[in-house]
Design brief:
Elements (H helix, E strand, L loop, with lengths): L2 H5 L3 E4 L18 H10 L3 E6 L6 H10 L9 E3 H12 L3 E6 L2 H8 L4 E3 L7 E4 L7 H12 L3 E5 L4 E6 L2 E6 L1 H11 L7 E3 L4 H11 L6 E5 L2 H11 L2 E5 L8 E2 L11 E3 L11
Parallel strand pairs: 1-2, 1-11, 2-3, 4-5, 4-6, 6-7, 7-10, 11-12, 12-14
Antiparallel strand pairs: 8-9, 8-13
């Protein structure tokens, strides 16, 4: 890609954890991140922040990025939880939703006036996020709802999570395998909505908000399977950050087909070289 074509890009999309900060729980800005974003703004570029986070409420993620000086306002921040809420709102007015998740996704849905969180039938949507103490009572109820016509949604696009919960450190199952189990058991194997990178839904929602075409956008991320694969599939220019200090929390599904980024960098400050 030549320098002129990068100059012509209108929107720069940054993954959050591993690219700008280690994690929302450890919001220490990586060196040069603020400077890069500031200079892109001075060049007249639009900035967006896109994450598969559902364990933390969108408003907390957004407020954190604003407080760190990365985001100019909350509207620049997009999470899987926030987009899942918008998806449900667009599909049905006065939706009844059963959510299996920790506080973050529950908070995202509970703050919407036209959405009713429920653990009683009837249910219009079953939304699965990260829940490190998930139990089969919840899973069985979700299955019943899907069998009776509820739409199943995976929020976060995660196979498993590496972290700590209630004093236990280790591996915790993610939303994808739970949805696979429910859809398979319901006789609808793989028939569920995936909200989170690399699914096109989350990218398309962001692009529509900024009113830009995929060819006018750039995605900067640290995961080939999510950030890069999702961008490549839609024709968004992709930049893969190979930084050794990034910390991987989520493990996405493993794909047979590897997506190659348009560019690999070891520090996001290298992006600015393409404007010289």
């Amino acid at each position: 890609m030549n320098q002129k074509s990068l100059k012509d890009k209108k929107l720069f999309i940054f993954d959050i954890e591993g690219v700008l900060i280690p994690s929302i729980e450890n919001p220490k800005v990586y060196q040069s991140a603020n400077d890069v974003i500031k200079e892109l703004r001075e060049k007249g570029k639009k900035i967006a922040f896109l994450s598969n986070i559902s364990r933390t409420p969108w408003n907390k993620v957004a407020d954190t990025l604003v407080e760190l000086g990365l985001a100019s306002d909350r509207d620049e921040v997009f999470t899987a939880g926030k987009v899942a809420v918008e998806y449900v709102k667009r599909k049905r007015k006065e939706a009844r939703v059963f959510v299996i998740s920790e506080y973050g996704l529950l908070a995202d849905f509970s703050q919407e006036k036209n959405i009713t969180l429920t653990s009683q039938k009837p249910v219009d949507f079953v939304v699965i996020g990260l829940k490190r103490n998930i139990n089969f009572t919840e899973i069985n109820f979700a299955l019943e709802c899907v069998l009776e016509g509820a739409e199943l949604i995976s929020c976060g696009y995660t196979n498993y999570y590496i972290g700590e919960y209630m004093g236990r450190k280790g591996v915790f199952i993610g939303d994808i395998p739970i949805c696979e189990m429910i859809s398979f058991t319901a006789g609808k194997k793989g028939e569920y909505i995936k909200i989170g990178k690399p699914s096109p839904i989350i990218f398309q929602y962001l692009l529509s908000k900024y009113q830009v075409e995929p060819s006018e956008a750039v995605m900067i991320g640290d995961k080939i399977e999510t950030d890069i694969a999702g961008a490549v599939a839609l024709g968004i220019y992709s930049i893969f950050l190979e930084s050794e200090e990034r910390k991987s929390h989520f493990t996405p599904p493993i794909y047979n087909e590897k997506k190659e980024p348009n560019l690999k960098v070891k520090n996001i400050s290298e992006i600015l070289n393409l404007f010289q």
